[in-house]
Amino acid sequence: MALNFSEKDNSVIVNFSGKLSGLVTDELNEVLHNKIDEGKTKVIAVLSDVSFITSTGLGALISGYTTMKNAGGDFVLANLNKWSVGLLSKTKLDSVFKQYPTIEEALKNEQSS
Asked: β-strands 99-100, 42-53: how paired?
């Protein structure tokens, strides 16, 4: 699993690639807390290059979501592949996470919220 962080329009973009497991939890939480300290509380998690998500990987996403919500921000998903969409639907997490088809769409909608 690889994480790549970037920023655009005052949002943090997290690109996940490979197998998403709980191994990313510590790194993700550390970066998110640093971004909160910098005043950045809008996160877009990009899942288009994720090949598999374990239960602990779902936990990492939920942890990121909770961290940003507790800071008054948001943690949304973008560029989900069909597999990720199906998993979120089966686990009912599609009702928790806002989902956008593209990063640009997420940026546009999150700037107005």
From this structure: unpaired
